[in-house]
Amino acid sequence: MGRPPSSGGPAFRFTHAEVAEMEEHLRHLNNAIPQRNVIQGLAEKFTASAARAGKIPVQYKQVWNWFQNRRYSQRARTPRGAPPPQGKMLPTGAEEHHPASFRAQGSSSSYPGSHSGKSPSDGGQAEFEAKSARDGAWYDVAAFLSHRLFETGDPEVKVRFSGFGPEEDEWINVRKCVRLRSLPCESAECVAVLPGDLILCFQEGKEQALYFDARVLDAQRRRHDVRGCRCRFLVRYDHDHSETSSPLTYM
After folding, report:
1. What is the CATH number of the domain that holds 155?
2. Residue ranges of the DNA-binding region (predicted)?
3. How many CB atoms sit inside 10 A of residue 149's CB?
4. CA–CA dist 158, 149 (Å, integer)
5. Which of 17, 78, 85, 250: CA 20 to 30 A from 67?
6. Residue 171: which domain range?
7. What is the pLDDT at residue 212?
8. Is the Cβ–Cβ distance between 249 and 104 less than 8 Å?
9. How many domains does the chain have?
10. Which residues in 194-227 are b (16+ Cβ under 10 Å) and which e?
11. Residue 52 to residues 12, 13, 24, 92: CA-CA distances in angstroms?
């Protein structure tokens, strides 16, 4: 996983033709992420296209992140199921990191004790996300492969990230970098987003487009229309302290 650029330059963008092709894959798979070989094939095809001649090659993770983000956007437009049960065990200090907003981050949790990315304590409904030490971004967990106790006494789990192979597996600190999967925010919920809230926010860079923790600095309320929420939120990312004005769909 490459580290996203920290400053300068235009953001990476897919062309209209590339977006149309990826959307066709989503429709064909009923909004599921394609297999690894399909995503790799798309990255190679886009790189070889005449429209990208002389430009930076399209990376596997850029394509995968597009599918991941689009799935979250689609999920935000559909009715939600029942909320996960309350009373999750929180490590010391986790409360101060618990956000009050959408794409609402799940609280940190003790080791799920399962070989899947779901918790067995709630009927398998809870899913998890983990922060990669390689780039500081958050990814959905496909499976917990193993666990151990680190020298400091903190528990760690070996994580397989959704959409990635074993070469991208990482040992993750459970107390700091594993939590219940974040949920996208629906348009009507934007009123709950307030300055000071901790959120998970999409960040587009020159070569990467990933989800990072951020703080809401200000909220500019606008009248909604047929497209949904038109509000803008000034956020500051925790990992590089950059600030940007983001729409609700990025959170």
Report:
1. 2.40.50.40
2. 15-78
3. 9
4. 11
5. 85
6. 128-180
7. 92
8. no
9. 3
10. eeebbbbbbbbbebbbbbbbbbbeebeeeeeeee
11. 12, 11, 21, 49
Tell whether the model's pLDDT for residue 165 goes beyond 90: no
Cβ neighbours for 65, distance < 8 A, ≥ 6 positions apart: 208, 209, 210
Please name the residue that has the structure tokens 């956000």.
99
pTM for the full model? 0.60
Q: What is the DSSP letter of 193?
A: -
**120-140 pLDDT, tens digit each:** 444 455 689 999 998 899 999
Give me 16's structure tokens.
């209209």
For residue 94, tell me if it sits in a domain: no
Region of 137 please: left (phi>0), alpha (psi -120 to 50) or beta. Answer: beta
According to DSSP, residue 212 is labeled E
Q: Which two tokens stand for residue 246?
A: 């983001």
Q: 45 is written with which tokens?
A: 């095809």
Q: Which amino acid is at 195?
A: P
Number of neighbouring beta carbons within 10 Å of residue 124: 11
pLDDT tens digits, one per residue of 168-222: 999 999 999 999 988 777 788 888 888 999 999 888 776 677 889 999 999 999 8
